[in-house]
Amino acid sequence: MTQLGKGPVETRQSTGGVVTVVTLIVSLVLFVGGMYLFGLAFQFPDFATLIFSSGLVAVVLGVFIPLQLLRHVDGA
């Protein structure tokens, strides 16, 4: 009989450590920059739609990158 907790230990090693950190920093910059663009849009009424849309795209990319793309890099 085998005892509980005495089985082989599986370790998961990430091959993209530096890639993961850089990607998360870029994602954070995109997210915060998009929030800044949301507020900036109200100061320029002529270009408000363009600036707000750019902010929306930046926030979406800032959320999409860690949720979807890092899954393929880390192999999760």
Task: Explain what you see.
This protein is an all-alpha fold and 76 residues long. 67% of the residues lie in helices and 0% in strands. It is built from 2 helices and no strands. It has helices spanning 17-40, 48-74. Helix 1 (17-40) packs antiparallel against helix 2 (48-74). The longest helix is centred in the C-terminal third of the chain and has 27 residues, at 48-74. The two termini are 32 Å apart. 3% of the residues are buried. The model has no long low-confidence stretch (mean pLDDT 83).
Number of strands: 0
- The amount of helix comes to 55-70%
Q: Please provide the ordered H/E string of secondary-structure elements.
A: HH
Strand-residue proportion? under 5%
Please outline what is shown here.
The protein is mostly helical. 67% of the residues lie in helices and 0% in strands.
Keywords:
single chain, 76 residues, mainly alpha, 0% strand
Q: What is the fold's blueprint, element by element?
A:
Layout: H1 17-40, H2 48-74
